[in-house]
Amino acid sequence: MVETYKRTSNPMMNRPVVKPELVEWMRESQTQLSGEITNVLEFAQTNNIPVIPHETVLYFQMLLSLMRPQRILEIGTAIGFSALMMSESAPNAEIVTIDRNPEMIALAKENLKQYDHRKQIILKEGDAAEVLTELTGTFDIIFMDSAKSKYVEFLPRALELLSDNGVILMDDIFQAGEILVPIMEIKRSQRALERGLRRLFDEVFNNPKYMTSVLPLGDGLLMIKKA
Ligand SMILES: C[S@@+](CC[C@H](N)C(=O)[O-])C[C@H]1O[C@@H](n2cnc3c(N)ncnc32)[C@H](O)[C@@H]1O
User: What is d(CA 225, CA 223) in angstroms, rounded to the nearest whole number?
Assistant: First the structure.
């Protein structure tokens, strides 16, 4: 019998935007992950490596099952948890995932060797700004889960790489509500990130070129599609 695994802790629980008890409910009541992927999740939790929270996992599983993507691009592999989760939900898809951190890359390689049974995942090492210029073809889903200040800079290239009916998803766009705080009241060290996010919102909201939808999952998930 496959053991199920319950999420017990996540760094995002400390700065919830949605009522904590509802976040807890979304995480505890819905279907739990099972199988090998739970080993990767458990490692991430034990070692404080940020990965997408459970409600976002379930949303991706639903989206991938509906969209049946052929190719997925991810910026921000970390140890490969979200890439492996997507490979399970889209067993026919090729998944290209990018990371620049050597420690994460080493751990991701181990995990992919062990758990990417269908050899769906291609790990590209380097800064996404550079790797994005080298990619060819189109992607049905582009998931950004990396440095938030750069989302706006990655957007033009991501749009070139996006298939006609494809969707871009960007994680952690609420910044625990800091996006509502005037920029000069934000800690200096956080301002570049906050400025980047605000430039992104200025670009994509109220722009006839895009359809957008913000989902209050985890620390906020922004979906962008060509209109
Ligand atoms: C939040 S973690 C990704 C978690 C992963 N998506 C998951 O849920 O399993 C963010 C990762 O993005 C990587 N990263 C940040 N900025 C990057 C950039 N400009 N290019 C490539 N990787 C980047 C970091 O090294 C880190 O491993």
Answer: 7
CA-based nearest residue to 68, from 84, 52, 89, 83: 89
**Distance, CA 157 to ligand 1 centroid (Å)?**
18
> What's the burial of 32, exposed, middle or buried (CB within 10 Å: 0-12/13-18/19+)?
middle
Backbone angles phi, psi at 7, to 5 degrees: -75, 130
Answer whether 89 contacts ligand 1 (Cβ < 6 A): no
Q: Are the beta carbons of 168 and 150 closer than 8 angstroms?
A: no
**Which is more confident, 151 or 19?**
151
Name the amino acid, one letter, at 38.
T
- Whether 128 and 158 have beta carbons less than 8 Å apart is answered as no
45: Cβ contacts below 8 Å, ≥ 6 apart: 7, 8, 9, 10
Measure the N-to-C terminal CA separation of the chain; round to a whole number of Å. Answer: 46
Distance 104 CA to ligand 1 centre (A): 8
What class does CATH assign to 67-226? alpha beta
- For residue 101, the CA-to-ligand 1 centroid distance in Å is 8
Residue 19's pLDDT band (cuts 50, 70, 90): confident
- Map residue 13 onto helix, strand or coil: helix
Cβ contacts of residue 48 below 8 Å, gap of 6+?
Answer: 11
Instruction: Please determine, for residue 57, whether its predicted confidence score (pLDDT) is greater than 70.
Output: yes
Whether the per-residue pLDDT at 183 is higher than 80: the answer is yes
Q: What residue segments make up the domains of the chain, in order of their start?
A: 67-226
